[in-house]
Write a structure and sequence with these properties.
The chain is mainly alpha-helical. The protein folds into two domains: 123 residues, no CATH class; 120 residues. It is 52% helix and 7% strand. The chain has nine helices and seven strands, in the order βαααββββααββαααα. A three-stranded antiparallel beta sheet has the order 1-4-5, with helices on one face. It has a two-stranded antiparallel sheet with strand order 2-3. Strands 6-7 form a two-stranded antiparallel ribbon. Helix 2 runs antiparallel to helix 3 and helix 4 packs parallel to helix 6. The longest helix is centred in the C-terminal third of the chain and has 20 residues.
């Protein structure tokens, strides 16, 4: 709240070396602020989490497509990357959902606003779901590779909302389709294949280790299997199990 780089309006930068707003940042900052606010009983941190989401959404939301663009550069006042990255939209919707579920009942207006954001974002993303229940890396660009993690993120979002009775049954069936598609991508070691590969996130995480040439095996594993791609499988399964128990 005191040292992080931010925009002129106080919206936290996703980067330390430059002031940029990434769709990813909706998940990284606001949920932590909201959780701290609830834990410490500090309303100001909770409302700040909501303010941050609104600031990010104002910068990144594409009203025409109902999708989040990826990166806004505050210095140049232009998009660094306007593409509708699937995983970026997944980060955004999951982050808004986490904050929504932390808000106390007294903040009814804020809860309704965030739920509307999620519903609108879900409809935008689901419009680009493939027949195999996966997504292209850039949601509305079928020339980009097929990616697994966005489906996990959307399933997580839907299952969490379902657990609290905040979403229609139709969406739950779609989340179950995503989950089944992800399970088909899991190998015998429990690794979810096809997730966007770190650290550049511009290729599928299933390439052969030989493709790395002289680079070390350790680096190869890091490049091709992003930790968040694996972690979101766990995040997806947790609310799915909670939802099943509630039913």
């Amino acid at each position: 709240m005191e040292k992080a780089p931010r925009t002129a309006k106080g919206i936290l930068s996703h980067r330390m070396d430059k002031v940029q707003l990434w769709a990813d940042g909706i998940y990284m900052g606001p949920p932590a602020l909201a959780f701290a606010g609830v834990h410490w009983g500090e309303r100001s941190l909770i409302t700040e989490a909501v303010r941050q989401i609104k600031g990010y959404r104002k910068a990144l939301w594409d009203e025409g497509s109902k999708l989040f663009s990826h990166i806004w550069n505050e210095t140049s006042q232009s998009f660094e990357r306007k593409a509708h990255w699937g995983v970026g939209n997944g980060w955004a919707l999951a982050g808004i959902t986490r904050v929504l579920l932390l808000l106390p009942e007294v903040l009814r207006t804020e809860r309704e606003e965030l739920l509307a954001y999620v519903n609108e974002g879900l409809d935008g993303v689901l419009a680009h779901k493939r027949q195999d229940d996966l997504y292209h890396n850039i949601l509305d660009d079928p020339s980009t590779f097929i990616e697994t993690n966005a489906g996990q993120q959307i399933a997580y979002t839907i299952f969490r909302l379902a657990q609290h009775g905040l979403i229609d049954e139709t969406y739950i069936k779609i989340a179950q389709e995503f989950r089944r598609a992800v399970l088909k991508q899991m190998d015998g070691y429990g690794i979810v294949r096809g997730v966007c590969g770190s650290p550049t996130f511009d290729h599928s995480g299933t390439a052969n280790v030989t493709d790395m040439g002289s680079r070390s095996l350790a680096w190869t594993k890091f490049v091709f299997f992003s930790t968040e791609g694996q972690a979101f499988y766990v995040l997806m399964e947790a609310p799915y199990e909670d939802y099943c128990k509630a039913r």
